Amino acid sequence: MRLNRSLLAASLAGVLFCLASPVLVAHADVVEPDDAAESRSATFEAVSGAQQEDVPGGPLLVAAYGAVLVLMLGYVLYLGSLTAGASRDLERLERALEARKPGERKSSRGEEIAAEIHAAKDASKGA
Amino acid sequence: MSVRIVSGLIWIALGALVALGLVSVAGPIGGFVAPIGFLAIGAFVLSRKNDPPLRVGSFPVPHTILGALTIALACGSLYAIFVMAPVEVQMGIVQKIFYFHVPSAYAMYVAFVTSAVGSAVYLWKRDERWDAIAVAGAEVGLVFCLIVLITGPLWARKAWGTYWTWDPRLTTTLLAGMIYVAFNVLRGLGQAGEAEKRFASALGFLGLLLLPVIHYSVQRWRGQHPTVITRAGGGIHPDMVPALVSGFLLFTAFVALLVWSRYRIERVKQRVATLELEAAESGLLEEGS
Predict the structure, then answer these.
(1) Is B121 at the interface with chain A, CB within 8 A?
(2) Contacting residues of B for A87, CB less than 8 Å apart
(3) Per-residue pLDDT for B29 more than 50?
């Protein structure tokens, strides 16, 4: 029930945030393009025919898309390392449990925890 | 009908409301793409289980479908950008950075808003699930913020003749990035205690207040940053629209996939830590094992 209330509250907070945004738009000072630089920053038009470039755009384009690729792949690998770390933690817990004799477990809650850790490990192996 | 489903439906209705507003403000492109973020959040809320299973490395079916969709969208988007979209008349080929730069900024907004909502609710309820959402949003948002801050200067080198100027939008974006760097550094320093979590959540919520400033800075304090797809802009050539729309679709799927993945990992980490603590208290583990 607590979760449901918090979800509802978050939704209402989002509504309020988005309703407030148009107020900022209404008070924004809109400047119309009045020269070539302004026009360039306000509209994109297609080229017709061949064109010479003063600053070569190719290396900049390759660098930009390369950076996106590297960052995305890097982050996916990082997520993989986090997953591997969680697997290692589960294995460590399992080894620690196996090193104990069953008689040393002191409570029914302890048994439940051990069962949950074993189940998590099995799920990890099956993935 | 549970309150959880009602919450998800509110987000989806909110998307439609924002669409109507943005169509009048930013044209059809803004109206089309902005609700997707809210739809993604709505789907995220609807798909959440109260107590996700403790599994490592497993991929549920919706996750796999979303991953496949992201790969398909990436292929389609690259085709639209490099084959279908024409070269821009003044900036040449470097203008094609625009098709990934702008959707990255949009993905950054979605992730940071997710983090801020998670932070605010965590501060209120002290529920670990919302803390995991805050962590996931902040981390993924920072990745997209880095993409924005790297691709933007590469575009600017050609357009402005310099990699960086202290333009209002550039400066406010950098500031937002620094706030979420602080968030991630704070949460990354070993096992975060309650005080660290609360302080980081406050930072996450502070970042939310900066997002409207970033978005409206080019209208409020007219700098050099382009305003092509805003109300003040002149729009883009019709042949460029598919490339931009496909970029927005790709980054919507990507941000949803990454936030969801990171959220699941954080939940597993939280539950492993809880189990470890409970196992130690129950006498199942040796001291320091």
Answers:
(1) yes
(2) 56-57
(3) yes
What ipTM did this prediction achieve? Answer: 0.78
SS3 state at B58: coil
Q: Cα separation of B271 and A98, whole Å?
A: 20
CB atoms A51 and B87 under 8 Å: yes
How many cross-chain Cβ pairs, A to B, lie less than 8 Å apart? 271
Whether B91 has its CB under 8 Å from any CB of chain A: the answer is yes
User: Is B208 in contact with B176 (CB distance < 8 Å)?
Assistant: no
pLDDT digits (tens, 9 = 90+) for B154-174: 988 888 888 888 888 888 889
Query: Looking at residues B196-222, what average pLDDT do you find?
Result: 77
Who contacts A113 (Cβ-Cβ below 8 Å, separation ≥6)?
B275, B278, B279, B282, B284
Please identify among residues 34-63 of chain A the ones whose CB lies closer than 8 Å to any CB of chain B.
39-48, 51, 53, 55, 57-58, 60-61, 63
- What are the residue boundaries of the structural domains of chain B, listed by start? 1-49, 69-277
**Interchain contact, B284 vs A97, CB within 8 Å:** yes
> Which of the pair, B89 or B286, is modelled with greater confidence?
B89
Residue in chain A lying closest to B25 (CA): A25
> CB B56 to CB A15 under 8 A?
no
Name the residue among A65, A72, A42 with its Cα closest to residue B93.
A65
Q: What percent of chain B has pLDDT over 90?
A: 18
Task: Give the C-alpha separation, A117 to A119, whole Å.
Answer: 5
CA angle (A46, A49, A52) in 5-degree steps: 90
Task: Dump pLDDT digits (tens) for A64-116.
Answer: 999 999 999 999 999 989 888 888 887 788 777 777 655 555 556 666 666 77
Cβ-nearest to A4 among B4, B120, B154: B4
pLDDT value of position A26: 45
First to last CA, chain B: 46
